[in-house]
Amino acid sequence: MSHEIELKLTLPQKSLPALRRHPLIAEAPRDGRACTLENTYFDTIDLELRERRMAVRTRKAGSRWLQTVKCAAESVAGLSARPEWEQPYANACFDFSAIDRDDVRKRLEELQPRLVPVFTTHFRRETVILTPREGVKVLAMIDNGHTEAAEPSHPLCELELELVEGDPAELYALAQQLAETLPLTPENVSKAERGYRLFSNHALRPAKARPSRLAAEQSPVDAFRIIGFDCLALWQANESGARESDDPEFIHQLRVALRRLRSALRLFSPALPADFVSRWSDGLKEAADGLGAARDLDVMLAEVLSPVAESGLADEATQRLIAMAVDRRDREKTAAREQLLAASHGRQMLALAADLYGLESDALVKSANLTTFARLQLTQLRKRARKRYAAAADLHPDKLHELRVSLKRLRYAIEFLLPLLPEKATVRYANELAEIQDTLGYINDEAVARGRLKAWAGKDPELRSGAAFVAGWHAPRIARLRRNILPTLEPVLWGKSPWRR
After folding, report:
1. CA 58 to CA 115: how far, in whole Å?
2. How many CB atoms are located within 10 Å of the residue 41 CB?
């Protein structure tokens, strides 16, 4: 058994000539000739191997046939390590006898009679050997082709950096050098997983944050690194969908990933190096800024304008305003896609991954008790929310929005730290926060939409009438929610907190 450690990167096919011309690639020695690879992946009809996160593949390279078995890999920011067994494939018959993990071998031997081909990848591979310094050797493999499953096919264009000798951090360093001039994006989804999606005819779906993986024995820095990589994975998972799909949920979840990262950075800032906090406070804000307008206009259409249109009461002026919102939303979506396609976006993801991987803490921080740290930080966040509550006593929209932001940061912190806290009481508390946060969100969305519609209407009397009609339609509900929001929140902020001993 071997362990394959690689960093997978995607790039547009039109950028391949520039990749080949890059000095790191152009001046590196070739590892043999370029070859065409045909890989066929096998599974049972009900995809039992996929369910178990295993893969069985045959590969034809020239006249040679190989059989490969891979097991589950944890992939973060494109970097993955997985157990792998490879051997010759002879007489069109699988042989699993050489697999040295009994559980894997026995399961495959049981399934062997039912294994059938499910999809195939065809690509041309060019391989060069990178040796940036003594003791480091990396294979850079450029794969260009497509994936087939029955009739559908999908293009495939990747750069894989496979570690032969050295520290995995070297892969990030090489990737960052290449990404200075190339639109490279780290990729967590394997060729096999993309082939399965094609086989199952499953469209890419927006990803949501997964449950926290923290444990009490971890240090605060180790905990932040885990949360950071999970947030980065959420960012990556929604990035390709946001580029390729009109589904607004991709951009929403991508922004959620960035907000969660920024919240985690604030939460763990006392345990993190000051230069790391400063650098990524600015960097993550920059990444999020260009994506906000498209999402805000989607929300405006869905939460403010569409209910008025669906009521059947919207007049011609309101319809004109809706058309203006759709046009502006579509233009902002185009701008957001351009931002995601820019080389700078991939560079930023790689830089964050490299910084997370290399993050270190001093002995004092390493020895800090994570549960104690969690309780102290949650208590501080609730105190800040209480201050925002007091400041919002006049119900001014800006102050209510600031209160909402503080509640969101408290809720994200609870979600990050949940494995360290009493589960039932804490989940109930977080759900209460979420409901209040949603109400404050609607109040803020209506206030922002009202200002935007007024600006769009300008001095046009018909549009001004339409803007006033939309505001009036929402006014009774807004008034009721504004009256009740602070009394509803008061017992949540001043009642017993579930993380207290």
Report:
1. 12
2. 24
Q: How far apart are CA 435 and CA 270, in angstroms?
A: 30
Q: Examine the pLDDT at 343 and tell me if it is beyond 80.
A: no
CA 87 to CA 94: how far, in whole Å?
A: 10
> Residue 411 above 80 pLDDT?
yes
Across 107-142, b (16+ Cβ under 10 Å) vs e yields bbeebeeebeebbbbbbebbbbebeeeeebbbbbbb
- 220-244 vs 316-341: helix crossing angle, rounded to 10: 120
Give residue 340's pLDDT: 79
Beta partners for 55?
Answer: 70
Record the tokens describing residue 151, joined without a space: 């009739």
Residue 131 above 90 pLDDT? yes
Query: What's the half-sphere exposure (Cβ side, CA atoms, 13 Å) at 407?
Result: 28
Question: CA of 485: how far to CAs of 223, 387, 404, in Å?
Answer: 34, 16, 11
The rounded percent of the chain whose pLDDT value lies above 90 is: 64
- pLDDT given for residue 280 in this prediction: 94
CA pair distance 132, 492, nearest whole angstrom: 56
Helix-strand-coil percent breakdown of the chain, rounded to 5?
A: 60, 20, 25
The residue behind tokens 């994006």 is 185
Which range is least confidently modeled, 217-221, 330-334, 357-361?
Answer: 357-361
In tens, the pLDDT along 59-91 reads: 988 788 899 998 876 655 556 667 889 988 887
State yes or no: pLDDT of 363 exceeds 60: no
Pick 269 or 64 by higher pLDDT.
269
Whole-number CA gyration radius for the chain: 26
Largest CA distance in the chain: 81
Q: What is the DSSP letter of 203?
A: P
Nearest alpha-carbon partner for 206 in 246, 243, 253: 253
C-alpha distances out from residue 431 to 31, 361, 381, 411, 485, Å: 56, 33, 17, 9, 15
**Tokens, residue 140:** 């850079």
Structure tokens at 458: 């300008």
Beta bridge partners of 117: 42
What is the per-residue pLDDT for 241?
81
Please give the distance of CA 103 from its chain centroid, rounded to a whole number.
32
How long a stretch of residues is the chain?
501
The span from the CA of 463 to the CA of 485, in Å, is 31
Q: Does residue 162 have a pLDDT over 80? A: yes
Residue 366 is predicted with a pLDDT of: 62
List Cβ neighbours of 498 (8 Å cut-off, separation of 6 or more).
421, 422, 425, 426, 428, 429
- Is residue 300 within 8 Å of 453, Cβ to Cβ? no
Indicate the SS3 state at residue 451.
Answer: helix
DSSP H helices, 57-101, are none
Name the strand (E) or helix (H) holding 391.
helix 370-391
Dihedrals phi, psi of 78, to nearest 5 degrees: 85, -15
